[in-house]
Amino acid sequence: MSLSAQDFAYMAPTTIDETITALGEAASTGARCQVLAGGTDLLVQLRSADPDPRTILDIKAVPETNRVGISDKGVFIGSAVSAATITHHEGLKAILPGLVESVYLIGSTQIQGRATLVGNLCNASPAGDTIPALIANQASCDIRGSNGARSLPVEEFVVGVQSNALEAGEFVVGVRMPHPGARTADAYLRFIPRTEMDIAVAGAGVSITLDEAGVCTAARVAIGAVAPTALVVPAAADALIGSRLEEASVAAAGRACTAASRPISDKRGTADYRRKVVAVLCERAIAAAAKRAAG
Amino acid sequence: MAKTHVSTRINGQDAEFLCSPEQSLLEVLRDTLQLTGTKEGCSTGDCGACSVLVDGTLVCSCLMFAAEAEGHEVTTIEGIASGSDLHPLQQKFLDHAALQCGVCTPGFIVASKALLDEDPDPSEESIRYWLAGNLCRCTGYDKVVRAVQDAAAELRS
User: Considering the domain boundaries, does residue B83 fall inside one?
Assistant: First the structure.
């Protein structure tokens, strides 16, 4: 036990204000307070590398964190919404199939029963599957804290390996993204050497908008597991916009992903391999998204 | 250290317990409530031996604080049979010899129950994907898959 003799405690506030108050009190006293959503990362870390006592602040009793909202203005997914809820949500599957695919790739059925999309984002693993898919969909984080509310694009929220932009006393209420609308669709693909239960060697999330004539009028490409954080690749999107997604444009987008990658070599793959495979994933994700966008 | 009081329902009955804030649901099930059918394997959410249902959703009880069970309904392997009548999944695991040491079996049965509740006629592929989070280090998976298929057929008939 630490010198401050902090004990473990568990709190489950029922409003955003109560949550902010609890976080603010901890921040002002220097006590450790950690937000709990699904817990599938938190409990593993608590039992291994990070066993120190702290207050566990369970946000699942806050109604706003459990909300899934879809309107013309946009889509909101609360920070306590589980992967299982998302993969069973017909409304989300219909308009954001690529984001739902990325959620479906998190862990096992059991993990998906607890793990949340926003938890996967806050954990900020370089290989987190949902992060490129969120970036492709222009998602931003709704952050609340004692200093008020702020919004941060996902690509700015993740600042390093397992590091996010939350300040002491802040938490994420949910993520928000534009409604994709007609003729816009997303896709996410990752590569793993197994068929299940593995961590991405590389991943690519894309969103494609096609006009009636099949010309790409907007695109966003994001890649994962090939740098300390997921990366937006504007050069890949630029290669697609204005094209009919013919082979040369798609290949150029793939090359842009390779060029943007700054991967490491580890037991899952070498840096050279990751640079190569991220291009293939990008090209295939473009094809999948374009097929969906064309209806 | 202050204990947390938790009111919940376990296997269809109201249940109350006291727990420490950092205790997992698995620890409370096994050590406080003596429901030792749920097994501890890895305690990191990789093996699925501790699978239980919470409000009908399949979860690893090692990756939940016991305090999180407040107000929720938990189903463990002890709640699968009806009295002394085995659930078809339990009977088919026996018939197909879909177990060897048996430590993974409660988790497989609870996970398979969750699958059949959602999809009464799953393909072999969906059974294998659904059960990817349940590890067996003795006997392998083919007999498990056949037992689940056979139980599904019986439940449909």
Answer: no
